[in-house]
Input
Amino acid sequence: MGKKGNLMSVRHDIRVVDATIRDGGLVNNFYFDDEFIRDLYKANIDAGIDYMEFGYKASKELFDEKKFGKWKFCDEEAIRSIVGDNDTELKISVMADVGRTNYKRDFLPKSESVIDMVRVATYINTIPAAIEIAEHCHKLGYETTVNIMAISNAKESDMKQMLELLGESNVNAIYLVDSYGALYPEQIRELADLYLEYGEKYGKSIGIHAHNNQQLAFANTIEALGQGASYLDATMSSLGRGAGNCPMELLLGFLQNPKYNIVPVLRFIEKNIIKLREEGLMWGYDIQYLLTGRFNQHPSSAIAFTKAKRTDYAAFYSELLDKE
Amino acid sequence: MGKKGNLMSVRHDIRVVDATIRDGGLVNNFYFDDEFIRDLYKANIDAGIDYMEFGYKASKELFDEKKFGKWKFCDEEAIRSIVGDNDTELKISVMADVGRTNYKRDFLPKSESVIDMVRVATYINTIPAAIEIAEHCHKLGYETTVNIMAISNAKESDMKQMLELLGESNVNAIYLVDSYGALYPEQIRELADLYLEYGEKYGKSIGIHAHNNQQLAFANTIEALGQGASYLDATMSSLGRGAGNCPMELLLGFLQNPKYNIVPVLRFIEKNIIKLREEGLMWGYDIQYLLTGRFNQHPSSAIAFTKAKRTDYAAFYSELLDKE
Output
């Protein structure tokens, strides 16, 4: 598949999605103070970012409201308390996890909601359930995406079948998600080509959500972009689970479209992100994340290693070997 | 130019060069204690690394011995105090900077030295002087490379002329050096292709030395490798000036040749690198380095920003704009 655009060209199909709260919420159980969220909302508007994801629409039957901040649930009133009627160019997104959402009850019709887009997160074996949620939200009037996680574990034949099903659905975009930060740029280019083949056949956009276990989240994002992916996830200072995500400041430094502006992102980071680190929140590249990425394993053991303040990397390597 | 190898293949032309002391010495003025150097030497041997660069052969007339550790000068006795006669598979390299070395005096004939390779660092406008040094060292019996720094600022026509001159010389390898961490993977692939065109014509190997200003040092290294580059620079935990280098632990995680072993590198990091950070040594990706990288500027202003413990990134951005 040919390259799309080059370093001098502007691609008007690009959609930058700020996933700071949603992926960052996995680090602090969604306990952000309102000032952080308001500043982020304003920074995203000023930076020309296309979507801001506020968090998850998690089921309150499954998750105790006392154990999570409000962005785990994203009640309409919670979002409106920040954005009012959101009379801006910035669109608002939430994520629904297959098996963790009461979507039939918890989504209003789009005409009554400030939410613009629902992204459905799924593993490859629950694609039918994901499509059911996406179709439900599509009928309510929302833009929808399906984000297939942990794709580094999937078989190519399963992927093709999945892409056919998604192609025939009403979703707007299909996301390539490297949950474990396991994939190298050449693999990302190949996978993006496969996704784009179906995307072009069925008129779907392709998205990329990368993790930074091997310091490749930004590289993999711009490589997928170069192949033709157009929905690009990033987070402020890479805030996100484990090794974190594609850093927004790197992505906006790269994009040529003058609608994007890095300065509000820099201001947001200096005011709000440094404080999180000082308060003890931990995320970002470190050896333990490289190792789970390299072993193509979920980062949970590396997160536990980090919380225990361990630095015995060689011993951790042996522990991972034993899990193979 | 076609891709060389894939994720399942072993390329026997690969040479991994540990530049930890040499590039890391730019962070601490080469004041490493001997235990650090001994542990590094042992780790490199055990990890199957091909070359260890001990530092610079800087002229003692130009640089005050009292202001730098011994690896700024790399006297034969200093190296021998670590390696003895170096009866190992690991080869030893030093770097000579054009205009900063008294090469005619300071290099012994190879037969009297434990040094195997001399790498000459140069800007593109001093290529003739670099070739003179390399030819001198070649005649003395050393392997040689010429490393052209700050290539992101060079014109393509100048590059071609430079590559012709180097092609006609006796150097073993020609290095692509992204000193400012300014280049994106697609630019690295194009530059690597250009270097390789001349490399194949003249029988020279091509090397890559990347900096991590935009979290692309590892990505750019493996992309250059994929195009056919074979000399790969990396440092332990990316220790090096400013944003640091390609992390050795990521590179060894990637390489398929079973001769490479990541575990001694992990042990070295847990024993020796964490301590350096605790002692206050600062290097690695941060916003200020992203910004100098993006502006294609020398990292000196970002290093000063770091030392001053500033975090006003937006103001720093404006300062860099004024330098454009």
